[in-house]
Specification:
With 124 residues, this protein is of the alpha+beta class. It contains 4 helices and 5 strands, in the order αβββαβαβα. Helix content is 48%, strand content 19%. The protein is globular.
Length: 124
């Protein structure tokens, strides 16, 4: 995990509950010895291989009420399937699926940051 991003500490606070619910969590892997490089920070939702939504909107109170963020929705199964294929390829090549053992180690290592993030989360 690349801990040079403060948002990671916020996210970690939700991992245990999500993992217990059966949600797959994948983390982008930094190349060895490198910090996370700039990347396109868009969010993407693909629903049933038919609907595609792409944008900058974060699912948070701050983003909903204070930020000028957008989502663009497209009902086009061919485009949704292209994006899904790209996404799955990227997961396979650049991501690690988090399991409960991984999370427990991260939780121990970053507990202080997670506790601080829990109190400051509303700002993000």
């Amino acid at each position: 995990m690349c801990m040079d991003n403060p948002y990671i500490s916020i996210s970690l606070n939700y991992y245990r509950e999500l993992l217990h619910a059966g949600v797959g969590i994948f983390e982008y892997q930094c190349p060895p010895g490198q910090k996370l490089r700039p990347y396109c920070h868009a969010k993407q939702f693909i629903i049933d291989g038919k609907f595609l939504s792409i944008g900058s909107l974060n699912l948070s109170i701050r983003s909903s009420y204070l930020e000028s963020e957008l989502m663009f929705g497209i009902l086009d199964s061919s485009l949704a399937q292209i994006q899904e294929s790209k996404f799955l390829k990227d997961l396979d090549q650049h991501a690690h699926r988090v399991n409960l053992d991984d999370y427990t180690k991260e939780e121990k290592a970053y507990r202080v940051f997670m506790d601080i993030a829990r109190h400051l989360e509303i700002l993000y």
